[in-house]
Amino acid sequence: MFSLLQRGQQVSNQAISALSYIAFAIIALFLAQLHFDNAYNLPSQIANIETSTNIRYSYSAGSTSAKGKENSKIKFDIDTDLSSLFNWNTKQVFVYLTATYPGKSPESSNRVTYWDKIITDPKDAKLSLKSVRGKYSVYDREFSFRERNATLALEWNIQPWIGPLVFGTLEGGQGFSFSKPEKPRK
Amino acid sequence: MDALPDLIEFPIDFVGQRKANRLTNLLLFSGAALSVLVGFVSQSFINTIYAFAGVFVLTLVAIVPAWPYFNKNPVVWLKPKKIEILL
After folding, report:
1. Which chain A positions have a beta carbon within 8 Å of B44's beta carbon?
2. Reported ipTM
3. pTM of the model
4. What's the number of domains chain A is made of?
5. Which among B31, B59, B64 is the nearest to A4, CB-wise?
6. What is the pLDDT of residue A186?
7. How distant is the Cα of B77 from the closest Cα of chain A, in angstroms?
8. Could you tell me if residue B25 is inside a domain?
Protein backbone atom coordinates (compact mmCIF):
# COMPACT_ATOMS: atom_id res chain seq x y z
CA MET A 1 0.00 0.00 0.00
CA PHE A 2 3.10 2.22 -0.24
CA SER A 3 2.58 3.85 -3.61
CA LEU A 4 -0.38 5.06 -5.67
CA LEU A 5 -0.19 2.07 -8.01
CA GLN A 6 -0.10 -0.45 -5.16
CA ARG A 7 -3.15 1.10 -3.53
CA GLY A 8 -5.05 1.03 -6.84
CA GLN A 9 -4.20 -2.64 -7.32
CA GLN A 10 -5.14 -3.60 -3.77
CA VAL A 11 -8.52 -1.89 -4.03
CA SER A 12 -9.31 -3.53 -7.41
CA ASN A 13 -8.26 -6.98 -6.17
CA GLN A 14 -10.39 -6.75 -3.04
CA ALA A 15 -13.30 -5.48 -5.15
CA ILE A 16 -13.12 -8.59 -7.34
CA SER A 17 -13.11 -10.82 -4.24
CA ALA A 18 -16.10 -8.90 -2.89
CA LEU A 19 -17.92 -9.36 -6.23
CA SER A 20 -17.50 -13.12 -6.00
CA TYR A 21 -19.00 -13.09 -2.49
CA ILE A 22 -21.87 -10.98 -3.85
CA ALA A 23 -22.42 -13.57 -6.57
CA PHE A 24 -22.62 -16.42 -4.05
CA ALA A 25 -24.96 -14.43 -1.80
CA ILE A 26 -27.28 -13.64 -4.75
CA ILE A 27 -27.38 -17.28 -5.88
CA ALA A 28 -28.11 -18.52 -2.36
CA LEU A 29 -30.89 -15.97 -1.80
CA PHE A 30 -32.36 -16.67 -5.27
CA LEU A 31 -32.54 -20.44 -4.70
CA ALA A 32 -33.92 -19.95 -1.19
CA GLN A 33 -36.59 -17.61 -2.54
CA LEU A 34 -37.65 -20.16 -5.16
CA HIS A 35 -37.92 -22.76 -2.42
CA PHE A 36 -40.00 -20.56 -0.11
CA ASP A 37 -42.20 -19.35 -2.99
CA ASN A 38 -43.07 -23.01 -3.56
CA ALA A 39 -41.78 -22.78 -7.13
CA TYR A 40 -41.15 -26.49 -7.42
CA ASN A 41 -44.79 -27.47 -6.79
CA LEU A 42 -46.73 -24.96 -8.88
CA PRO A 43 -50.10 -26.13 -10.18
CA SER A 44 -51.10 -26.10 -13.83
CA GLN A 45 -54.10 -27.21 -15.82
CA ILE A 46 -53.84 -28.81 -19.21
CA ALA A 47 -57.19 -29.51 -20.82
CA ASN A 48 -58.92 -30.30 -24.12
CA ILE A 49 -56.00 -32.26 -25.49
CA GLU A 50 -56.49 -33.24 -29.11
CA THR A 51 -53.80 -35.14 -30.91
CA SER A 52 -53.53 -36.14 -34.52
CA THR A 53 -50.98 -38.34 -36.20
CA ASN A 54 -49.98 -38.15 -39.85
CA ILE A 55 -47.49 -39.98 -41.98
CA ARG A 56 -45.17 -37.51 -43.63
CA TYR A 57 -42.54 -38.16 -46.22
CA SER A 58 -40.25 -35.15 -46.18
CA TYR A 59 -36.76 -35.27 -44.72
CA SER A 60 -37.59 -32.35 -42.42
CA ALA A 61 -40.39 -34.43 -40.90
CA GLY A 62 -37.87 -37.09 -39.95
CA SER A 63 -38.51 -39.41 -42.89
CA THR A 64 -35.46 -41.23 -44.15
CA SER A 65 -37.12 -43.75 -46.42
CA ALA A 66 -40.10 -44.12 -48.71
CA LYS A 67 -41.97 -45.56 -45.77
CA GLY A 68 -42.31 -42.09 -44.23
CA LYS A 69 -42.52 -41.20 -40.57
CA GLU A 70 -45.39 -40.79 -38.17
CA ASN A 71 -45.67 -37.19 -37.02
CA SER A 72 -47.78 -36.19 -34.06
CA LYS A 73 -49.45 -32.83 -33.56
CA ILE A 74 -51.39 -31.48 -30.63
CA LYS A 75 -53.96 -28.88 -29.62
CA PHE A 76 -54.53 -27.96 -25.97
CA ASP A 77 -55.63 -25.40 -23.36
CA ILE A 78 -53.33 -24.40 -20.54
CA ASP A 79 -53.90 -22.38 -17.44
CA THR A 80 -51.12 -21.63 -14.98
CA ASP A 81 -49.47 -18.86 -13.01
CA LEU A 82 -45.67 -18.71 -13.13
CA SER A 83 -45.31 -15.45 -11.17
CA SER A 84 -43.35 -17.08 -8.35
CA LEU A 85 -40.62 -18.12 -10.80
CA PHE A 86 -39.82 -14.44 -11.21
CA ASN A 87 -37.62 -12.85 -8.59
CA TRP A 88 -34.66 -10.50 -8.61
CA ASN A 89 -32.26 -12.90 -10.32
CA THR A 90 -34.62 -14.15 -13.06
CA LYS A 91 -33.73 -12.97 -16.54
CA GLN A 92 -36.29 -15.05 -18.38
CA VAL A 93 -38.32 -18.22 -18.09
CA PHE A 94 -38.61 -20.87 -20.76
CA VAL A 95 -41.83 -22.91 -20.53
CA TYR A 96 -42.25 -26.03 -22.60
CA LEU A 97 -44.87 -28.68 -23.02
CA THR A 98 -43.49 -32.19 -23.20
CA ALA A 99 -44.91 -35.66 -23.67
CA THR A 100 -43.14 -38.48 -21.86
CA TYR A 101 -43.77 -42.04 -22.96
CA PRO A 102 -42.05 -45.42 -22.58
CA GLY A 103 -39.26 -46.15 -25.00
CA LYS A 104 -38.38 -49.25 -26.94
CA SER A 105 -36.80 -51.03 -23.99
CA PRO A 106 -38.82 -51.20 -20.75
CA GLU A 107 -36.43 -49.15 -18.63
CA SER A 108 -36.08 -46.29 -21.11
CA SER A 109 -38.33 -43.30 -21.49
CA ASN A 110 -38.72 -40.84 -24.35
CA ARG A 111 -39.58 -37.19 -24.10
CA VAL A 112 -40.69 -34.90 -26.94
CA THR A 113 -41.44 -31.18 -26.94
CA TYR A 114 -44.64 -29.97 -28.58
CA TRP A 115 -44.69 -26.34 -27.64
CA ASP A 116 -42.62 -23.73 -25.86
CA LYS A 117 -42.66 -20.10 -24.86
CA ILE A 118 -40.12 -17.60 -23.58
CA ILE A 119 -41.42 -15.25 -20.88
CA THR A 120 -39.25 -12.20 -20.25
CA ASP A 121 -41.71 -10.01 -18.36
CA PRO A 122 -43.29 -10.99 -15.01
CA LYS A 123 -46.51 -9.38 -16.27
CA ASP A 124 -46.79 -12.18 -18.83
CA ALA A 125 -46.29 -14.89 -16.23
CA LYS A 126 -49.97 -15.77 -15.98
CA LEU A 127 -50.66 -18.15 -18.84
CA SER A 128 -54.25 -18.71 -19.82
CA LEU A 129 -54.25 -20.02 -23.36
CA LYS A 130 -57.11 -21.63 -25.26
CA SER A 131 -56.92 -23.95 -28.26
CA VAL A 132 -53.19 -23.58 -28.72
CA ARG A 133 -51.64 -25.56 -31.52
CA GLY A 134 -48.28 -27.15 -30.77
CA LYS A 135 -45.34 -25.42 -32.42
CA TYR A 136 -43.58 -28.57 -33.43
CA SER A 137 -44.51 -31.62 -35.42
CA VAL A 138 -43.08 -34.42 -33.36
CA TYR A 139 -41.70 -37.78 -34.43
CA ASP A 140 -40.00 -40.71 -32.77
CA ARG A 141 -36.78 -42.51 -33.63
CA GLU A 142 -38.97 -45.47 -34.53
CA PHE A 143 -41.38 -45.31 -37.44
CA SER A 144 -44.46 -45.17 -35.24
CA PHE A 145 -45.64 -43.98 -31.84
CA ARG A 146 -47.55 -47.30 -31.63
CA GLU A 147 -50.48 -45.58 -29.86
CA ARG A 148 -48.58 -45.64 -26.58
CA ASN A 149 -49.82 -43.81 -23.51
CA ALA A 150 -47.97 -40.60 -22.76
CA THR A 151 -47.96 -37.98 -20.02
CA LEU A 152 -48.26 -34.39 -21.08
CA ALA A 153 -46.67 -31.92 -18.66
CA LEU A 154 -45.55 -28.33 -18.58
CA GLU A 155 -41.93 -27.88 -17.64
CA TRP A 156 -39.99 -24.73 -16.93
CA ASN A 157 -36.44 -23.51 -16.98
CA ILE A 158 -35.29 -20.30 -15.33
CA GLN A 159 -32.41 -18.49 -16.98
CA PRO A 160 -30.98 -16.29 -14.21
CA TRP A 161 -28.74 -13.24 -14.44
CA ILE A 162 -26.08 -15.16 -12.54
CA GLY A 163 -26.03 -18.69 -11.18
CA PRO A 164 -27.14 -22.07 -12.39
CA LEU A 165 -30.05 -22.80 -14.71
CA VAL A 166 -32.99 -24.04 -12.66
CA PHE A 167 -35.35 -26.69 -14.05
CA GLY A 168 -38.70 -27.90 -12.82
CA THR A 169 -41.99 -29.50 -13.78
CA LEU A 170 -45.42 -28.11 -13.01
CA GLU A 171 -47.99 -30.25 -11.25
CA GLY A 172 -51.05 -31.30 -13.19
CA GLY A 173 -49.65 -33.53 -15.91
CA GLN A 174 -52.28 -35.13 -18.13
CA GLY A 175 -52.28 -38.55 -19.72
CA PHE A 176 -53.17 -39.13 -23.34
CA SER A 177 -52.41 -41.69 -26.00
CA PHE A 178 -51.04 -41.09 -29.46
CA SER A 179 -53.77 -41.45 -32.04
CA LYS A 180 -53.72 -43.77 -35.01
CA PRO A 181 -52.28 -42.27 -38.19
CA GLU A 182 -54.99 -40.71 -40.32
CA LYS A 183 -53.66 -41.89 -43.64
CA PRO A 184 -53.26 -45.63 -44.01
CA ARG A 185 -49.71 -46.88 -44.49
CA LYS A 186 -48.58 -47.34 -48.08
CA MET B 1 12.63 7.27 -17.83
CA ASP B 2 13.24 6.42 -14.17
CA ALA B 3 11.79 9.75 -13.19
CA LEU B 4 8.17 8.89 -14.13
CA PRO B 5 7.51 6.15 -11.51
CA ASP B 6 9.00 8.44 -8.87
CA LEU B 7 6.79 11.30 -10.00
CA ILE B 8 3.53 9.31 -9.57
CA GLU B 9 4.61 7.37 -6.48
CA PHE B 10 2.69 9.39 -3.84
CA PRO B 11 4.04 7.38 -0.87
CA ILE B 12 2.35 7.06 2.52
CA ASP B 13 3.96 6.09 5.80
CA PHE B 14 3.89 2.68 7.54
CA VAL B 15 1.01 3.45 9.91
CA GLY B 16 -0.88 4.92 6.95
CA GLN B 17 -0.40 1.70 5.00
CA ARG B 18 -2.01 -0.34 7.77
CA LYS B 19 -4.87 2.17 7.99
CA ALA B 20 -5.37 2.06 4.21
CA ASN B 21 -5.45 -1.74 4.15
CA ARG B 22 -8.01 -1.99 6.95
CA LEU B 23 -10.16 0.77 5.50
CA THR B 24 -10.16 -0.93 2.05
CA ASN B 25 -11.44 -4.21 3.50
CA LEU B 26 -13.99 -2.51 5.72
CA LEU B 27 -15.41 -0.37 2.92
CA LEU B 28 -15.48 -3.07 0.23
CA PHE B 29 -16.84 -5.98 2.27
CA SER B 30 -19.42 -4.05 4.25
CA GLY B 31 -20.33 -2.30 0.96
CA ALA B 32 -20.78 -5.69 -0.70
CA ALA B 33 -23.14 -6.83 2.07
CA LEU B 34 -25.05 -3.56 1.78
CA SER B 35 -25.35 -3.92 -2.03
CA VAL B 36 -26.82 -7.41 -1.69
CA LEU B 37 -29.28 -6.07 0.87
CA VAL B 38 -30.26 -3.17 -1.42
CA GLY B 39 -30.83 -5.54 -4.34
CA PHE B 40 -32.77 -8.03 -2.24
CA VAL B 41 -35.06 -5.43 -0.68
CA SER B 42 -35.78 -3.75 -4.01
CA GLN B 43 -35.92 -7.18 -5.74
CA SER B 44 -33.73 -5.89 -8.54
CA PHE B 45 -30.50 -7.49 -9.63
CA ILE B 46 -29.19 -4.39 -11.36
CA ASN B 47 -29.51 -2.31 -8.15
CA THR B 48 -26.94 -4.59 -6.51
CA ILE B 49 -24.51 -3.92 -9.33
CA TYR B 50 -25.09 -0.16 -9.25
CA ALA B 51 -24.73 -0.07 -5.45
CA PHE B 52 -21.46 -2.00 -5.56
CA ALA B 53 -20.13 0.17 -8.39
CA GLY B 54 -20.80 3.15 -6.13
CA VAL B 55 -19.00 1.49 -3.22
CA PHE B 56 -16.03 0.70 -5.49
CA VAL B 57 -15.69 4.29 -6.71
CA LEU B 58 -16.00 5.58 -3.14
CA THR B 59 -13.24 3.19 -2.00
CA LEU B 60 -10.96 4.25 -4.86
CA VAL B 61 -11.42 7.91 -3.94
CA ALA B 62 -10.83 7.20 -0.24
CA ILE B 63 -7.76 4.97 -0.58
CA VAL B 64 -5.80 5.68 -3.74
CA PRO B 65 -4.70 9.32 -3.32
CA ALA B 66 -2.05 9.98 -0.66
CA TRP B 67 -4.40 11.78 1.72
CA PRO B 68 -2.73 13.60 4.65
CA TYR B 69 -4.62 11.15 6.91
CA PHE B 70 -2.24 8.40 5.73
CA ASN B 71 0.88 10.53 6.30
CA LYS B 72 0.49 11.48 9.95
CA ASN B 73 3.35 9.33 11.26
CA PRO B 74 6.38 9.95 9.09
CA VAL B 75 9.47 7.91 9.77
CA VAL B 76 11.95 9.96 11.76
CA TRP B 77 15.50 9.30 10.72
CA LEU B 78 18.48 9.81 12.98
CA LYS B 79 20.58 12.80 12.17
CA PRO B 80 23.86 11.90 10.55
CA LYS B 81 26.82 12.15 12.88
CA LYS B 82 29.57 14.48 11.99
CA ILE B 83 32.63 12.61 10.98
CA GLU B 84 35.92 14.24 11.47
CA ILE B 85 38.38 13.25 8.88
CA LEU B 86 41.76 12.75 10.37
CA LEU B 87 44.61 13.52 8.20
Report:
1. 88
2. 0.85
3. 0.86
4. 2
5. B64
6. 52
7. 18
8. yes
